[in-house]
């Protein structure tokens, strides 16, 4: 089967491996608006990515000042010291996007995007609508191929899309904005999907794990419902449960990077807080509500919500006009002197961002 770029709002991407004939054969993917995935000879696929950014000048033409955390190549001493730090510390880079370009027809969306996601990081990608945030997530997840540039996973260039099997060591999961649940499967079957298909766990053990995982996202007694019987916020939480469930019988679990596309869009403020805290709780650095450390090594969140920026991420990348124009820690965002960031943070109509 040829590598197929998967594009659309109703795709389902599951982290880990998927059997060709899983849950009603590859046809069921099509039936649910999902194109068949490109599967290797083993019948399994793996989603993986990685990236290393060269020292570069992020300064946009109209920015008067710049955050201390951005790198100006003209400041050679700073660039050198940053370069040394980076060279010494590349082993923890899980995903790197290096000078990534992507166009759709005449629309040149990404025009040289570079950044790294390191082990342990909680990163937010923000920026105006239509600037390519979801596109870069799909490229990181291996669902879209860049036109130019590279995606590296643990320092190794990924060739092609999600079918690559030569790169191992990181699992990448994408949680879609639309939740992308299988309409004809119950909540239990949706959440336990990969375990039913790819693990050796007995059904009753999976069922128990599904119930625990649903409880961790604040859902009880919904296992036998169909997605159509849930509210939008509940569907998002089911999708979250599906992305964080894992095989508890395995001794070694590879580090996992979760990519969340607007996980709190359309949720009321309290439901948003629940989801934001959940995202934190499944991070390895965090603690879950049952006082167990989370399992996600790193995560990336695309969001427009201030509360999500504040509660769920530590570092931010600001995407504008096809490039990362600012990056810094979350607490630096609101005090940044960068005119683009200031306008975005204040929601002002005056400034370099034009609608
Ligand atoms: N498969 C596609 N075919 C054609 N155009 C596309 C495709 N995917 C995305 N685009 C276009 O690329 C641009 C960037 O889309 P993307 O969804 O990545 O933006 P975004 O920054 O996530 O936006 P938002 O914040 O509004 O969700 C948009 O103009 C969109 O219409």
UniProtKB/TrEMBL annotation:
Molecular function as annotated in GO: ATP binding; ATP hydrolysis activity
Superkingdom of origin: Eukaryota
Record's keyword terms, sorted: ATP-binding, Nucleotide-binding, Transport
GO biological process: lipid transport
Domain ABC transporter: 95-346
SMART domains per the UniProt record, alphabetical: AAA
Cellular component, GO annotation: chloroplast
Protein name: ABC transporter domain-containing protein
UniProt organism field: Coffea canephora
